[in-house]
Amino acid sequence: MTTSQTMRTFVAYVEDRPGVLNRISSLFRRRNYNIVSLNVGRTHEAGVSRMTFRIEADDDMALRVEANLYKMVNVLSVEDITHKASVSRDLALIKVTVGPDKRAEVLQLCEVFRARAVDVGPETLIVETTGTQDKIDGLVAILQPFGISEMVQTGTVAMSRGPRGAAASALNDPQSLRDLSVA
Amino acid sequence: MAASVTNIPIGTPARTEARRLTGSQIIWDTLINEGVNVVFGYPGGAIMPAYDALPDFPGLRHILVRHEQGAAHMADGFARASGRVGVCVATSGPGATNLVTGIANAMMDSIPIVCVTGQVASTLIGSDAFQETDITGITLPITKHNFLVSRVEDIMPTIRQAFYIASSGRPGPVLVDITKDAQNANTEHRYDASPIRLPGYRPENHPLPEEIERALEMMKHAKRPMIFCGHGVIKANATALLLELVQRTNIPVALTLLGLGGFPASHPRSLGMMGMHGEAWVNTAIQEADLILALGMRFDDRVTGNLKTYAPHAKKIHFELDPAEINKNVKVDLALLGDLRETLRLLVPHAEKLSIDSWVDHIEALKGDSAVRDIRELPDSGRLFAAHVIHDLWRYTQGSALVVTDVGQHQMWEAQYYKHDHPRKLLTSGGLGTMGFALPAAMGARFACPEEEIWVVAGDGGFQMTACELATCAQENIKVNIAVINNGYLGMVRQWQQFFYGGRYVATPIKSPDFVKLADAHDLKGIRVTRREEVQSAVEQARANKETTIIDFRVEQEDSVYPMVPAGADLDNMIRRPMPEAKHNPIFETGKDP
After folding, report:
1. Which residue in the list B108, B274, B412, B492 is annotated as catalytic?
2. Of B81, B213, B370, B440, which is the most buried if we count CB atoms within 10 A?
3. What pLDDT, on a 0 to 100 scale, did the predictor assign at position B3?
């Protein structure tokens, strides 16, 4: 029987070429997968991008997400790291409306959250924080009373602990990487 | 630019020395090297350089269609009939968008076609140039993959990749969009025949030995097993292995619409089609079965009916190439991933005879009064029923014609009454249900099977959607026989209106042109048939004519396809054809005949 829907975290390596992100998001849309967050960026390998995405899915659906991604020509490898020991982080920039009178108080609170001020203006402060969604939500709740004028957050990026993850190991074939860098 | 290109005779395949060719020439040269000898297309601004180079390649026949949808269906029909890749060509903008229905159709039925489209010059992309459209964006969800090529050097490798992707693994359509400047530019060209490597594309899967073991074990214990023959049996060329499996085990076979022909209809263990318009005994048997071997099929909703009550007693083994199909609609107990032929090769030699005589007898008994309800048993009132026409067509063609159907009632009657013993003899639009498919697909099939007798079976509605291709038949001397099952309605929709919408026939009565005159207007032949005794001579006349011949069969207007499982109903909850003596509307009952 199908399990209930839970938050799943996937890591995928994809070819770094135009339109690939569009192909993947189009797949999610037409298969009715609900993306909670999606992050994509380059890796240390030329021609290879790495994606982290989180979706709500049950076990069967998670397998099909993986299988459907594998069917895409530009997807090099996929791994569901939901049940693996892993590190996952979001980064947030929060602009707090705070003048000189309360600035010290805000900075003190930030310290508790290991967040740092990356810009100080006469009436504003930009705070940078990385961590899990819970931690970011906690910080936002604390800063809200001072007045948050803007906030931006990346999607989750995640990496399994220990030796090279399965998705990364699937890239081991040096020929495939050579093909990528010349394409 | 063109001046620097050597004007040597080209078009001979597999030349090894490098030559300086234009992108346009490279397109055709690469297609020829991929084994293509016919393309279906329509010229226009952004593909004109390629067309200008076409006469340099006498080995390639171009069929000028009347609408690009026809070109895509022709490529599709060619691919279905031959098992090879079909090719269509169109210009940018409207030319490309007209392909869309044909591409979606090929995607749903996993048909390998390559579509080459012209695109505006790369410098103009994104400027809303004349006839610019983002066709790779538009076709992204309905192609297996697509490419935009804007450099002449990329044309040959990209077309090669397109053929490889289209035809390998689970096949599907691939579109290659080539900018006009890439067609006009030139480069040193030598067709590269080395194996293609796409780092992210691994279409193969292989079943594990222990999975084969487990399947055999499950088969051993089955008391009421069934085999499902899907499209994959035909695509994987696994029909002989399936036959052997049945000879060894005696397991009865039910077929999907697209699986028809994958197992001989005349075989004693062949039960017929399953699903919405499947045979009553097949659907009832599925609900009683304790083991289902599902071969190359995807448990479409038209096959399963209500998923919650579907085949409740059966363990299910899914033989499937595409991992994304596993547990998509129906949760299975075992999945054998891989090429069906490879899987059956491993499994069949170990399959043992099962003692299931009582199950086989039981299914036979389930047929009950089905034969009596059969339209063929209706007293001859002198009126013409569509099922009569199809049944007679089967008889007078000795069941050996290649039949291409459109979509609707006639399609289901064909599936029920034209008994196919061989694969690739029924081409039909299954997944997408594309009206207008039949005529162009049959024309494409003509190039795959030049000697074969080909019949289009279409309704009066769908036929008119692509009837413009009659002119293509006339111009290109393409001979097919066309049976228009003309009931003056969009019949399947009318049937639903009769059963489920209180008999309100909204927008389903349809006036057609005089099809005999229409044939005449195209310098083709037309015959009208209104009585059953005229069927045979009309069929024979059409076969004898050297031109494409339309037979306008004026059939009973408000006949319905039976049995019918209403959409989403339990599979054995079928509307059955009334008994011959009944005067009332169809009765709603279970398929369990007393």
Report:
1. B492
2. B440
3. 38
Q: Which of A71, A78, A171, A176 to mutate to test the interface with B (most CBs of B within 10 A)?
A: A71
Q: Note whether A15 contacts B199, CB cutoff 8 Å.
A: yes
In a domain, residue B591? The reply is: no
The CA R_g of chain B, rounded to the nearest whole Å, is: 25
Separation of alpha carbons A9 and A1, rounded Å: 22
Residue among A26, A63, A175 whose CB faces B141 most closely: A26
pLDDT of residue A168: 76
Distance from CA of A22 to the nearest CA of B (A): 9
B360 assigned to some structural domain: yes
Closest CA to A82 of A70, A107, A65: A65
Domain hosting B238: range is 209-366
- Give yes or no: residues B338 and B403 share one domain: no
Position A173 scores a pLDDT of 53
Task: Count CB pairs under 8 A between chains A and B.
Answer: 57
Tokens read off for B417: 């009454």
| B84 & B225 share domain | no
**Do B263 and B178 share a structural domain?**
no
- Residues B357 and B461 reside in one and the same domain: no
| Residue B570 domain flag | no
* Token pair for A144: 């809200």
- Only one residue has tokens 């249900």, namely B433
Chain B residues whose CB is inside 8 A of the A27 CB are: 141
B466 is a domain residue: yes
Average pLDDT over residues B113-121: 98
Cβ atoms < 10 Å from Cβ of B119: 31
Taking the C-alpha atoms of residue B42 and residue B40, their distance in angstroms, rounded to an integer, is 7
Do B153 and B17 have their domain in common? Answer: yes
Tens of pLDDT, residues B538-566 = 999 999 999 999 999 999 999 999 999 99
Tens of pLDDT, residue by residue over A129-151, are: 999 889 999 999 999 999 999 99
Q: What is the CATH number of the domain that holds B552?
A: 3.40.50.970
Give me the pLDDT at residue B374, please: 76
Q: Is A175 on the interface with B (CB under 8 A)?
A: yes
- Please give the average per-residue pLDDT across B555-584, as a whole number: 84
| Weakest mean pLDDT among A82-86, A92-96, B520-524 | A82-86
Cβ-nearest to B323 among A67, A72, A176: A67
- Is B439:B429 a contact under the CB 8 Å cutoff? no
Residue with tokens 């819970």: A134
Do the bridges between strand A86-97 and strand A157-160 make them parallel or antiparallel, or are there none, so unpaired? antiparallel
Q: What is the pLDDT of residue B18?
A: 85
Q: Which residues of A touch B144 (CB under 8 A)?
A: 73
Q: Which of B163, B201, B321, B333 to mutate to test the interface with A (most CBs of A within 10 A)?
A: B201
Instruction: Give B336-374 pLDDT, tens digit per residue.
Output: 999 999 999 999 999 999 999 999 999 999 988 787 777
Q: Which domains does chain A have, with CATH numbers?
A: 6-83 (3.30.70.260), 87-157 (3.30.70.1150)
The answer on B167 and B79 residing in a single domain is yes
- B144, B180, B316, B525: the catalytic one is B180
| Structure token pair of residue B155 | 């044309």
- Whether B499 is catalytic is no
pLDDT digits (tens, 9 = 90+) for A13-46: 999 998 999 999 999 999 999 899 999 999 999 9
Chain B residues with CB under 8 Å of A63 CB are 323, 326-327
Q: How far apart are the first and last CA of chain A?
A: 44
* B278 in the same domain as B409: no
Structure tokens at B494: 């009318």
Q: Does B248 share its domain with B110?
A: no
B199·A70 Cβ contact <8 A:
no
Beta carbons within 8 Å of A23's beta carbon, 6+ residues apart: A72, A74, B140
Number of domains in chain B: 3
pLDDT digits (tens, 9 = 90+) for A90-125: 999 999 999 999 999 999 999 999 999 999 999 999
Report residue A177's pLDDT band, with 50, 70 and 90 as the boundaries: very low
CATH of the domain at B282: 3.40.50.1220
